[in-house]
What does this fold into?
Amino acid sequence: MSSRNKVRRTLEFDSPPGIPRHLWLLPWAESNHPDTVRKLREEYPDDLVHAPDAYRVPLAVEGDPHRKGTYVDEWGCRFTNIQDGVIGIVKEAVLEDWNDLESLVCPEATLSLDADRINSFCRSTHRFVLAGSRVRPFERLGFLRTMEQALMDLLLQPPELEVLLSRIHRLYLKEVEVWAGTEVDGVCIIDDWGTQQGLLISPDLWRRIFKPMYRDYAEVARHHGKYVFMHSDGNIIDIIDDLIEIGIHALNCQIHCMGVETLGTRFRGRITFWGEIDRQHLLPYGSLMDIRKAVEEVHAQLYADGGVVAQCEFGPGARPENVLEVFKAWDDMLEGD
It folds into this structure.
């Protein structure tokens, strides 16, 4: 069975022949642990891959997002990075004053996909292909205003906030539409919503402002027969029911800070958990036995004839032997079934 069908059957809870693999590899790992990266790619190849960034109109970006220094993205947001191999943060607002709102230019170059190249890539692989979409309405608000000001905006609710979010949403809705019109298998939404204790804003405010946006994205993607994947860091347990309701198929989240057993009790068999193995504590500080126990717990609590992707992130601080052990543990456990 192809990787593509294995992932599809995982998402449909249709007893796939094994657990799909997906390594999130930051450039830091490639620079600092090239031998381990090579071994991971050879022995534990991914079942999911991302489509290439292919635009007919080049995006107006400056610099490298993973290099020390400054990177300017397609919206003009400036990311300050203090080390190579990871992505920096925005310290200066593009939209510091609401008087500048009318002059804000939304980067429609992101809609100029080279569909022929993307479709050719999809046809060339047996793996499940995820869109390279940049859909992130909450984070985009934070990038344009800085996160501190964005949270104040959500608290104070100035009328300009609705205008800005509407413009962001309209562009992202078009972006989902153009990606869903290609031959990719899944469309991605990326927004970090949680602290280690809970959401950054109240669940009610999230449901009123952002849930309708995500519903729109999911409806467009599903209309085109695409699966919908979403990522969010932090403790987001208060909105997982909502994500299931609006049609998210797979969720990448920090399952260990929410409690794997709790997630299993409430959501097992209702949404696919697209990883992860804890990158805050286990991957940097855990023993090989700790890693093995974590994998076994994820399988025991979350697997329901599907519904689990063996995913983890190889980034700063992670011990290379622990990342290898994640995928070795999955293989060993499934061979023993």
Summary: The chain is about 45% helix and 15% strand. The CA atoms of residues 189 and 230 lie 5 Å apart.
